[in-house]
């Protein structure tokens, strides 16, 4: 049951049993789900337990942070009185991970269309998402744009990567952080390293490490230039990021969801004071054109073109740094807090 003495509770799935814990006024409640490779058993187990919690609790607002948490939140709303927000930060009718499985994609889309009937308001990460989803769901319900941006921090240039890898001062460091999957351009960047001197590529995150990173590095004989750095906590990630010279957000539009992507790594690179190489997809292009915190490149670019773009960024990294420092004061979560509080009828004192 949700703890009544704490005004905010975060419920999330885990594979191994964990005790509830709290921080400030937030109660964190882990829900154990089966360690199955199939989505349905995990989804069913999570929904069953969350439904029971909602039945036994008196809540005023529920934020379903993805389609999977929307299922119990939407179905239970038929009997419980609370305001339901659907945080649709993925276009679930066109997921990148399902671009080769149209049947599963269709099933998810049908489920989502049914469940959003009980949603009161939507949350999206960009205006283009709002435009598309309002038509896709055929709804006039409110859409709240809350961008995937970090809290503002005055970042001092770090040297963590260089010291950890024992790199010389004249070696350029390119960074990628996030999920390591197809469609994220990691292979393309690795391929381009054969045309770049004194340049290494450092990758933070989890996913298909052997297939995407090591096999590609071996294929192009650049294994000595590619480093998998593991997973870092969010609190320490910016310090690692600030020790790089530039970041990459090379997303290929293998799905409509990817085409509208506006990932948090773009804003984290900016907050860390480093420029980005960014594919020319609509939402990201809008940010680059307005704030000039990186360079756009075609998602169809070959490895030689990518290498040339990387050189241009590195040659002008000091100018980009100034742009990042200015933009980070606007592209920060702090400026969105009032908008979020207004959604639940709270005004900041």
Q: What are the secondary-structure elements, in order, as H or E?
A: EEEHEHEHEHEHEHEHEHEHHEHEHHH
Within the CATH hierarchy, at the fold level, what is the topology of the largest domain? Rossmann fold
Mean pLDDT equals 91
Question: Uncertain segments of ≥5 residues (pLDDT<50)?
Answer: none
Order of strands, main sheet, comes to 10-9-8-11-12-13
Query: How many domains in all?
Result: 2
What's the gyration radius in Å?
Answer: 21 Å
Counted beta strands: 13
Per DSSP, the total helix count is: 14
Q: Tell me the major beta sheet.
A: 6 strands, parallel
CATH homology superfamily name of the largest domain: Glycogen Phosphorylase B
CATH class category name of the largest domain? Alpha Beta
Helix content: 25-40%
What structural class do you assign from the helix and strand content? alpha/beta
* Level-2 CATH architecture of the largest domain: 3-Layer(aba) Sandwich
Structure description:
The structure is a single chain. This protein has 349 residues and is α/β, with parallel strands linked by helices. The chain is built from 14 helices and 13 strands. The strands form 3 sheets. A 6-stranded parallel sheet has the order 10-9-8-11-12-13, sandwiched between helices. Strands 4-5-6-7 form a 4-stranded parallel sheet. α2 runs parallel beside α3.
